[in-house]
Amino acid sequence: MTDHFADDPRTNRERMLAGELYIADDPDSQAISRRALRLLEEYRVQFIAADFDRAIATLREVVGTLGDDAWIKPPLSVDYGENLHVGARTFINYNLTALDVAAITIGEDCQIGPNVQLLTPTHPIEPQPRRDKLEAARPITLGDNVWLGGGVIVCPGVTIGDNAVIGAGSVVTKDIPANVIAVGNPARVLREI
Q1: Any bridge partners for residue 160, and if so which?
Q2: Which of 62, 73, 127, 147 is surrounded by the fewest CB atoms within 10 Å?
Q3: How many beta carbons lie within 10 A of that of residue 11, not counting itself?
Q4: Which residues does the annotation mark as catalytic?
Q5: What is the dihedral of CA 24, 25, 30, 32, to 10 degrees?
Q6: What is the C-alpha separation between 92 and 110, in angstroms, rounded?
Q7: Is the pLDDT at 1 greater than 80, yes or no?
Q8: DSSP class per residue in 120-172
């Protein structure tokens, strides 16, 4: 295997946080990921027991930002949690997968349907670097008052503008402007709101 980082003294975590190619074997990143997994299981159990104050406190230990009156129904799956930022009064239904290798920013007053996937990781197209386990990530941003229908997939690097509605099952591969309805695979603007 080629040593892609022979002249780079940084750790893979440092390269990851810089948005550059890295290999996902950094011990610090693995520890953060395991901690998030443990805390999200505690969150799920506390939520089921209707111990909501404790559940929200546990969730705040995982995510980077959780706005006032934001609500996330478990289960929630993250890579790290620390790069997930959720605005005030946002509601997220069951089974959000937020692969937050890069920042995922969800605005205020958003509605996120069940089984939504927010995917920041990217992988090389060329076979050898992919075989060498190189990856990177690009941030995802959802503006305020965005509604993602059930099963929506948002790909790396995508920004969705304020008030946009994304139809259930859509795959968002490119930026979506504010104040529109977009549907399909790949998602295309259907009309303005």
Answers
A1: 142, 176
A2: 127
A3: 16
A4: 123
A5: -60
A6: 8
A7: no
A8: -EE--SSHHHHHTTEEEE--EEE-TT-EE-TT-EE-TT-EE-TT-EE-TT-EE
How many angstroms separate the CA atoms of 69 and 118, rounded? 21
pLDDT in tens, 51-83: 999 999 999 999 999 999 999 999 999 999 999
List CB contacts of 20: < 8 A, sequence separation 6 or more.
136
The DSSP line for 86-123 is E-TT-EE-S-EEEE-SS-EEE-TT-EE-TT-EEE-EE-
Alpha carbons 39 and 80: distance in angstroms, whole number: 11
Cβ atoms of 169 and 153 within 8 Å: the answer is: no
Q: From CA 129, how far away is CA 163, in angstroms rounded?
A: 39
Q: Which amino acid is at 83?
A: N
Question: Which DSSP state fits 3?
Answer: -
Phi-psi region of 54 (alpha: psi -120 to 50; beta: other; left: phi over 0): alpha
pTM of the model: 0.95
Could you tell me which residues are beta bridge partners of residue 41?
Answer: none
For residue range 92-129, list pLDDT tens digits in order: 999 999 999 999 999 999 999 999 999 999 999 999 99
- Would you state the pLDDT for residue 72? 98
Structural domains of the chain ordered from first start: 12-192 (2.160.10.10)
